[in-house]
Amino acid sequence: METSPLVLWFDLMGVFFFALSGNLLAARKDIDITGGFILGLLAGLGGGIIRDVMLGVTPLALAKPVYLVPPLVAVVVVYLLGSVIHRVQTLIVACDAAGLGLFCTFGTARALDHGMPVASALLLGVVTAVGGGLMRDVVANEIPAVFSGSNLYVIPAATGAALTAVAVSTDVWGPVSATVLSVLVFAFRMVAWARQWRVPAPVRTWTVRDLDVLRRRERSVFGRPRGERDDGLRDDEYDDDELGRR
């Protein structure tokens, strides 16, 4: 499977979208072009490298230099078009969701192709999808989307991985099913972000007082969508008022 040009193309698309999210995040945080390239590499290649190391094979990102092309293209795109891009937060989340959909499906399929049990393949599919973004956010001093507590992130990836395992086991895995599953995960993630769907929270009496306000002040790019402005000035003013009243 891994020698298929179609699989390579889809995998490179996932690398590009994740690398684009890393470069956009760098631009949003006023990190220079070199730092943006590093964040793009971490986001685009990190999950796949973790997966392949756990599989005991040479990572595709190291075996095939073509995997360095999408992060370079992402740097150029953000550098040339960054000044005309608006609603950066939405674009970062959308690129991250696109990479999530592509990586959770093809990460699972690659694990199954290497003879992994279904449960292990599901785990590796999710690791492929969230690993790079986790590394990107930690290095950029951002609350990782996995831990933001604001919306669903791992669940869409796990859903895509499970459906991929079903498709492979029923012999319907192919270009059409792969595309459909990737789009489904993308849509699931974006709707969850826009509507702020959440998993059950811990017992509320255990949490820190004013935790919701403090989370808003942390200004995670993966937090709730902005109301009017992407720089969050209005939300900051609201948070100050909230803390002042308490």
Features:
single chain; disordered C terminus; transmembrane helix; membrane; Gly_transporter; transmembrane; cell membrane
Structure description:
Helix content is 69%, strand content 0%. By secondary structure, the protein is mostly helical. The chain is globular and about 45 Å long. The protein starts with a helix and ends with a helix.
Average of per-residue pLDDT values: 82
Q: Structural class of the secondary structure composition?
A: mainly alpha
Number of helices: 10
Summarize the biggest pleated sheet.
Answer: none
Taking pLDDT < 50 over at least 5 consecutive residues as the criterion, the unreliable ranges are 228-246
SSE diagram, text form:
Elements: H1 5-28, H2 33-55, H3 60-63, H4 69-81, H5 88-113, H6 118-139, H7 154-169, H8 175-195, H9 211-218, H10 233-245
Helix pairs in contact: 1-2, 1-4, 1-5, 2-4, 2-5, 2-6, 5-6, 5-7, 5-8, 6-7, 7-8, 9-10
Membrane topology: Multi-pass membrane protein
InterPro entries: Gly_transporter (IPR005115)
Region (Disordered): 224-246
Short précis:
By secondary structure, this protein is mostly helical. The chain has helices at residues 5-28, 33-55, 60-63, 69-81, 88-113, 118-139, 154-169, 175-195, 211-218, 233-245. The chain is 69% helix and 0% strand.
